[in-house]
Automatic annotation (TrEMBL):
<dbReference type="GO" id="GO:0043137">
    <property type="term" value="P:DNA replication, removal of RNA primer"/>
</dbReference>
<feature type="binding site">
    <location>
        <position position="80"/>
    </location>
    <ligand>
        <name>Mg(2+) 1</name>
    </ligand>
</feature>
<feature type="domain" description="XPG-I">
    <location>
        <begin position="140"/>
        <end position="221"/>
    </location>
</feature>
<keyword id="KW-0227">DNA damage</keyword>
<feature type="binding site">
    <location>
        <position position="152"/>
    </location>
    <ligand>
        <name>Mg(2+) 1</name>
    </ligand>
</feature>
<feature type="binding site">
    <location>
        <position position="154"/>
    </location>
    <ligand>
        <name>Mg(2+) 1</name>
    </ligand>
</feature>
<dbReference type="Pfam" id="PF00867">
    <property type="entry name" value="XPG_I"/>
</dbReference>
<dbReference type="GO" id="GO:0008409">
    <property type="term" value="F:5'-3' exonuclease activity"/>
</dbReference>
<dbReference type="InterPro" id="IPR019973">
    <property type="entry name" value="Flap_endonuc_arc"/>
</dbReference>
<dbReference type="InterPro" id="IPR023426">
    <property type="entry name" value="Flap_endonuc"/>
</dbReference>
<comment type="function">
    <text>Structure-specific nuclease with 5'-flap endonuclease and 5'-3' exonuclease activities involved in DNA replication and repair. During DNA replication, cleaves the 5'-overhanging flap structure that is generated by displacement synthesis when DNA polymerase encounters the 5'-end of a downstream Okazaki fragment. Binds the unpaired 3'-DNA end and kinks the DNA to facilitate 5' cleavage specificity. Cleaves one nucleotide into the double-stranded DNA from the junction in flap DNA, leaving a nick for ligation. Also involved in the base excision repair (BER) pathway.</text>
</comment>
<keyword id="KW-0235">DNA replication</keyword>
<dbReference type="InterPro" id="IPR008918">
    <property type="entry name" value="HhH2"/>
</dbReference>
<keyword id="KW-0378">Hydrolase</keyword>
<feature type="binding site">
    <location>
        <position position="27"/>
    </location>
    <ligand>
        <name>Mg(2+) 1</name>
    </ligand>
</feature>
<keyword id="KW-0269">Exonuclease</keyword>
<dbReference type="InterPro" id="IPR006084">
    <property type="entry name" value="XPG/Rad2"/>
</dbReference>
DNA sequence: CAGAAGCA
DNA sequence: TGCTTCTGG
């Protein structure tokens, strides 16, 4: 899952307000997956409507987008297309993890250990086609645009930051840096305290911004070199990385030799992966070219009707929409004062 | 996850 | 009022 570049990059804490009036390309899969994983009851089960269809993603999208729009942030969601064929092994690996977690979940439930049950249930999270369809339809009622990427969503999101159509790409995965995003935002949520699982402690989660050029300058590397570092550590396209090589060693080796082909001690292992193609996925990914990103007004009635059909309480939807309306009115007032 | 409710 | 816990669907 993603790439362990955490210790190599400079991250600057910021706030959601800092993104007011900016277009942010959101890695839709990444965001929705997190809603599906975390919006659950104490038993670990997701929220569902009267027909038993999962609604956790809709709940997450509702509140988060209301917050974005209230602050004048312009989100554009980028959905994944067909994964690169090199990702097959990683996809299988994730499937297996979910299978194992399902067994552990059932065991924990049988033993009445609800804390574990919840933890393992989260690990079984998977995204179904219906959820993608739901999310796109729901975004449309919000007037929020979405883009269907031909392949990895992150790559198209990164592309938009380079065409100037988006200020930053929002994802929890560091891959966006290798994809060439100008800026990456992590924790792109209303900041707040988050509970550490099982522990009785909380941490403050603030949005953090990563400027790719600053990262490259600070480690004195080119993007090509950083991609090779990534491949040494392990990417979605070679999930195991290289034996006995973590971030520190990877950096040292690339600093010394510049590229994978020139590191003597890894040549045998290097033959086992298609590193040229992995580089290509990061350097020249298949992306969607977008003419214009259009934001529409929120269709309050549409949002209400859609969520009522999915068993959301009318009162809750109404008060959430009122909050949005109030915030937008206040915004236009502030704007009027200028003229 | 994020808002609502509960509580000092 | 601010912090913790509960609930949503």
């Amino acid at each position: 899952m993603g790439l362990n570049l955490k210790e190599l990059v400079i991250r600057e804490k910021t706030t959601l307000e800092a993104f007011s009036n900016k277009v942010i390309a959101i890695d839709a899969y990444n965001a929705i997956y997190q809603f599906l994983a975390s919006i659950r009851g104490p038993d670990g089960l997701q929220l569902t409507d009267a027909e038993g269809r999962i609604t956790s993603h809709l709940s997450g999208l509702l509140y988060r987008n209301v917050n974005f729009l209230s602050l004048g942030i312009k989100p554009v969601y980028v959905f994944d297309g067909k994964p690169p064929s090199l990702k097959t092994a990683e996809i299988e690996r994730r499937k297996q993890i979910k299978k194992d977690a399902t067994v552990k979940y059932e065991k924990a439930v049988a033993e009445g250990n609800m804390e574990d049950a919840r933890k393992f249930a989260q690990q079984t999270t998977s995204m179904k086609d219906g959820m993608v369809k739901d999310s796109k339809e729901f975004l449309t009622y919000f007037g929020i645009p979405y883009i269907e990427a031909p392949s990895e969503g992150e790559a198209t999101a990164a592309h938009l930051t380079n065409t100037g159509q988006a200020y930053a790409s929002a994802s929890q995965d560091y891959d966006s840096i290798l994809c060439g995003a100008k800026r990456l935002v992590r924790n792109f949520t209303s900041s707040g305290r988050r509970k550490i699982p099982n522990r009785n402690t909380y941490i403050d989660v603030l949005p953090e911004i990563i400027e790719t050029q600053k990262v490259l300058d600070s480690i004195e590397m080119t993007r090509e070199e950083l991609i090779d570092v990534g491949i040494l550590i392990g990417t979605d396209f070679n999930p195991n990385g290289f034996e006995r090589i973590g971030p520190k060693t990877a950096m040292k080796l690339i600093k010394q030799h510049s590229r994978l082909e020139d590191i003597p001690q890894i040549q045998e292992q290097l033959e086992e992966i298609d590193f040229q193609q992995i580089r290509e996925i990061f350097l020249n990914p298949e992306v969607a070219d977008v003419d214009e990103i259009v934001f529409n007004d929120v269709d309050h009635e549409g949002v209400m009707k859609y969520l009522k059909e999915r068993s959301f309480s009318e009162d809750r939807i109404q008060s959430t929409l009122n909050r949005l309306k109030k915030a937008l009115e206040k915004k236009s007032q502030n704007l009027d004062q200028w003229f």
